[in-house]
Amino acid sequence: MGFLDGLKKLGLGALEDEELYEDPSKKKAEEKKEEPQKPPVEIDEASLLFDKKYVCPVCEYDFKVRTLRTGKIRMARQDLDLRPVFKEIDTTKYEVVTCPNCGYSVLAKYFGNLTKFQMDEVRSKICANFKRQDFSEDVYTYEEARMRYELAIASAMVKKSKNSEKAYICLKMAWLIRGETEHLDMSAPGYTEKKVANDAEEKEMLQKALDGFELARMTETQIAGMDEATTDYLMAALALEVENYNLAMKMVGNIIGSRVANSRIKDKANELKSLILKRAREARETITTENSEK
Ligand SMILES: [Zn+2]
Predict the structure, then answer these.
(1) Secondary structure letter of residue 113 according to DSSP
(2) Distance between Cα 123 and ligand 1 center (Å)
């Protein structure tokens, strides 16, 4: 199943076979085996949001986007790959600006003007085929949020955004899928199938994010506003999540051996290193057991 399957519904099925990065790397989605977590309770999500006004840089349509009010929520925890988790709301649902008129979409962080080339590409490859959508006025569903991310990936592809921007969207979409999985009702019919499908899709997006950050790291100086040690840390965590232990070790090694990284991130890198070694050992043991059983 392709990660852009949803584009068909939006009239953009032709983009499904496009390569996300111009330097394609191998990617293989596997399923992971984690215990389901309890879905967190949502506390009046709508009260944490306001309507932010935008003018589409492509079609000049005025529209509003549900946007998080700052300073109202406190982070409950952070995942290994730096995803912040809040009790009250899944903030990842509200980070894409989507023009409901033409479909042009971008992470709010990267919202801005487009070059003539980019406008032409977006107009002919996104807007011309886009089926107008009405999004919820109160809170976005995961389905709506996914659609927005798929449009953001498609827009980034056709306007030839930097690899770091594409990678960052993939990372956020992986986080969105993880958030959806955490909010699934475990007693609902089809829970297991949905969870298995989500886990595979999440891993596919994590791999795509990692591929993009690897490319970006070779050519870009600053990646998504992060300093070098943070980028390396994130890549190490992503590599661990997709079970690329060699790359994970290489990235933590960069941080531990760095002369500019601070002691806080070095400590975090050392903790991550222990976890990578542990998981790599467990993976080797699994393979040995499987072989001896044959
Ligand atoms: Zn527009």
Answers:
(1) -
(2) 9
